[in-house]
DNA sequence: GGTTATTTGTGGCAAATTGCCAGACCCCTG
DNA sequence: CAGGGGTCTGGCAATTTGCCACAAATAACC
């Protein structure tokens, strides 16, 4: 059970964070008269609950230092760009394209800005904004409640809005690619939504950058076998074998400099 | 000596950059009391995350191709902020708020970030993004085809999505405020959509900055009389008289420095 | 009152940050 | 176009911070 003392510290830490923006471990430790390790555990607990983000030497308010999305978008840029180019090469003039949220699909969106005469559906705010600034394509936003971590709509509204579209090709993200070659997701709702996206489209591809190889997330995505895979590096042998057994279509994007 | 947290410097650097446009390494080093190398590393880290660009001797705001939207948002900032504050003062804890697209309603969105426990519906991508980054409120995006000039959803889908919500208070933009005290819009579709927004809400307000006074746009907005008006300056006498005849509720926001 | 579970503190080691220094580079001026 | 002053880059050492595992302390429970 949580000791009242710890709860009091948490409260005070959050108050300081919202007031000043950042706190340091050292400050808090001397101020509360506890060890730095304890403070660090407090910060970790609060970070796990999404109330702040831990930075070197302390913690900072979540929304200012951690657009989380912008941060993640910077990882493995070259690989994601390569995936984007490969995905775009599958898209032909006049197609209806469905784009999931995520940083890898954002790279696909960038690659699609060079195309013309597309109809693009997405549940992501950033993707919609990017694509509507590029000329030549119509953009449809799938509405619904916005998940702050993805900055994209999720839930029943999205699934229902999806049902109105006839989609030629879908590019979908995911949480991880297991050793068994299964595509998995973090949440039940997310997995279901992605399954619907795949079911809606004539052809669907998961876009997964190399960071997802072997990552274990809890929920299996239904109908994932219907979808192909676009990645930015050769998967490890064990995964590659599993994919071959499932006869999953696999495309490996090559980076160019 | 206690080591300063890098995140604190980063935050301050970004603040200065957005404020003054450029910063110099020397300035920052003396101001933070650290070496120039450290500052350079900070700048590199921020540049890697895409928050600024490094130039010889310092750093500058990142050159982004700001869309026309960004331009308009720069006009009459103080007035729009005042309107935002006034609008926010009408919003109470737990309310369901409907936000139209536009630069003036964006100021309202900014003011609403300080509130808690709201449910906010909007058809604007930028508004949704801004609000979902602020903690404490749920955001619903009204889906539909994206109009590139407003970067917001328009059309039948929006009107239908609207019908699912029970809205306490709506803040709506418009094209102009005529000499007769009539609120008007550029397009038929836009006027209809705004009329529906007003009809959906228990209470609705147009937010119009002084630039809209006397501007003539072709389409009258239905049911505009049900809505109040929030402006940032006393309207000219002729308009004020017309509004009084219509017994339109008029709030004039005051700028504070 | 004894036992269990949770929290807190401590120590060692890995990793990150910072300052300093030397050499290469850039920009400006004459 | 050459020189000078300032700026950037890379490596290295000192210090701080983070992480992990284990021990101690304290609250909760029967």
Task: Based on the model shown, name its key terms.
homodimer, alpha/beta, Arc Repressor Mutant, subunit A, Rossmann fold, DNA-binding, globular, three-stranded antiparallel beta sheet, 23% strand, seven-stranded parallel beta sheet, 11 helices
- Distance between the ends of chain A: 55 Å
Give the chain pair forming the largest contact, with residue counts: A-B, 39 and 36 residues
CATH class of the largest domain in chain A: Alpha Beta
The total beta strand count of chain A reads 15
Number of separate helices of chain A: 11
The SSE order of chain A reads HEHHEEHHHEHEHEEEHEEEHEEEHE
**Which spans of chain A of ≥5 residues are poorly predicted at pLDDT below 50?**
none
The oligomeric state of the chains shown is homodimer
Helical proportion of chain A, percent range: 40-55%
Proportion of residues in extended strands of chain A: 15-25%
Major beta sheet of chain A, specifics?
A: 7 strands, parallel
Mean of pLDDT of chain A: 87
The CATH architecture of the largest domain in chain A can be given as 3-Layer(aba) Sandwich
Give the CA-based shape of chain A.
globular
Which secondary-structure class do the elements of chain A indicate?
alpha/beta
Number of domains of chain A: 2
What is the CATH fold-level name of the largest domain in chain A? Rossmann fold
Rg on CA atoms of chain A, Å: 21 Å
The strand line-up of the biggest sheet of chain A is 6-5-4-9-12-14-15
